Amino acid sequence: MQALREVEGRAIPFGRKNIDTDLIIPARWLKTISREGLGQGAFEAVRTTEPDNPFDSEEFAGAPILIAGDNFGCGSSREHAAWALLDLGICVVIAPSFSDIFAGNAFKNGILTVALPQEAIDRLLEVAATDPISIDLEAQSVTTPFQDRFSFDIDPFRKHCLLEGLDEVGLTLSRDDAISSYENSLAAEKPWLTRGTGVAA
Amino acid sequence: MKPRTLYEKIWDAHVVERRDDGTCLIFIDRHLVHEVTSPQAFEALRLADRKVRRPELTLAVPDHNVPTTPRLAPDGTRLPIEDPQSAQQLAALERNVAEFGIRYFGATAREQGIVHVVGPEQGFSLPGTTIVCGDSHTACHGGIGALAFGIGTSEVEHVLATQTLLLKPSKTMEVRVEGDLGPGVAPKDLILHIIGVIGTAGGTGHVIEYRGKVFEEMSVEGRLTVSNMSIEGGARAGLIAPDEATFAYLKGRPFAPQGEEWEQAIAYWRMLRTDDGAAFDTSVAIDATEIEPTVTWGTSPEDAIAISGSVPDPASFADPSKQDAARASLDYMGLTPGTPMREVEIENVFIGSCTNSRIEDLRAAAEVLRGRTKHDRIKWGIVVPGSGLVKAQAEAEGLDKVFTEAGLEWREPGCSACLGMNPDKVPAGERCASTSNRNFVGRQGPGSRTHLVSPAMAAAAAVTGTLTDVRELVR
Question: pTM, whole model, 2 decimals?
Answer without folding.
Answer: 0.92
